[in-house]
Specification:
183 residues; alpha+beta; four-stranded antiparallel sheet; 4 helices; 4 strands
Length: 183
């Protein structure tokens, strides 16, 4: 019977970096509480050129996708986010306990997904308030969770497509150099 790889104990896995996920969730929820209490619905408050605080609610997904579908999308997007969060947790569990681009990216996506799930479950909608615009064109209003998901996903792409291949190439070159030196 072939040797089976041992499962890494949780205490030494990147699960210990979940404090970063909790930080993202807290920041997201606190800013949403602030937005609901300080802003009037759909009334822009200028912050700086090309940026307003504008309270808005999203019943769908990104860009209000499926927002007018009668309510089933609330539970669909909740289930989807919970499923993705479970996958991210398993991925995190397999990584060593250190904050690097990969673990930060996973924690950001995880925190953002959970932040928006909290809104969907308890409010039936996601609270958005960041309104970026150029001239008369406005990007879809978003929130801190959305920023965390986007930045986290970009970090994961960076890690998987650029940083990991570079590290593997460097390790392979070092291994070849050591093999040549041993001869």
């Amino acid at each position: 019977m072939p040797d089976q790889p041992s499962v890494m104990p949780t205490s030494k896995s990147a699960v210990r970096t979940l404090w970063f996920t909790l930080l993202v969730i807290a920041l997201d929820q606190l800013t949403k509480v602030w937005a609901v209490s300080a802003l009037e619905f759909a009334v822009p408050v200028p912050v700086m050129p090309n940026l307003n605080w504008t309270l808005n609610y999203n019943h769908g997904a990104a860009f209000s996708f499926l927002a007018d579908m009668g309510g089933w999308q609330r539970w669909f997007f909740t289930a989807l986010a919970v499923g993705i969060s479970a996958i991210l947790y398993v991925w995190l569990k397999k990584l060593p306990n250190k904050l690097n681009v990969e673990t930060i990216g996973i924690n950001m996506v995880l925190g953002g997904a959970i932040g928006n799930v909290i809104d969907r479950v308890f409010e039936g909608k996601v609270t958005d308030f960041i309104d970026f615009y150029i001239g008369t064109w406005h990007y879809a209003t978003f929130n801190v969770a959305d920023v965390a998901i986007s930045v986290g996903a970009a970090l994961l792409v960076l890690s998987e497509l650029i940083l990991k291949p570079r590290a593997e190439k460097k390790a392979k070159a070092a291994s070849s150099a050591n093999t040549e030196a041993d001869k």
